[in-house]
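Hi, here's the filled form for the chain we discussed.

Project: internal
Contact: R.S.
Residues: 168
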Amino acid sequence: MGLFDLFKKKENLLKKKITVILTLQVSKQDINISEFAGFKIVSCHDILQKFNYRSSIESHEKKLEYISEEIIHSKNNILICDLKVSITSFDTLTEMLKPHQLTINKILVPNESKRNKKLAEGQEAYRNHSRWLHFYPGEIEDIYREFEAKIKSLKTRYENTETEILEI
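And the returned structure, exactly as it came back:
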């Protein structure tokens, strides 16, 4: 192994020490940027746009590949905002990152206050515009309960792992 190879190997090892933070339905505007100094902060939408992802043509798996590529090629700590994916998608991303010695360090989710506010806003919109919305009565509440269950399941699934689930 030559000097160049040793340098590249050391460079790769140093590169892999980045912190990876993902958010589940937390937008870039809801992030306190000062808490994440030194992080590359990017929205999931911007990543997909960069790779010209088209959901009508490309698979969900391709979407996850683009997200993982952005993480793998990041030279800095990275925070990706506003992921709207399933719990199994986090598992898939974890597996895609493993060969590169990367882990998802944290997944940020909206805190209870923000979730309740969103529920109240949805209920208000339904009361004011139900004749134009294609929601059945109680659908707003069902969506809220599904998201609550998703967060609970996420916390349970990652309870004894390197990935921390935090409400912000």
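Let me know if anything looks off before we file it.
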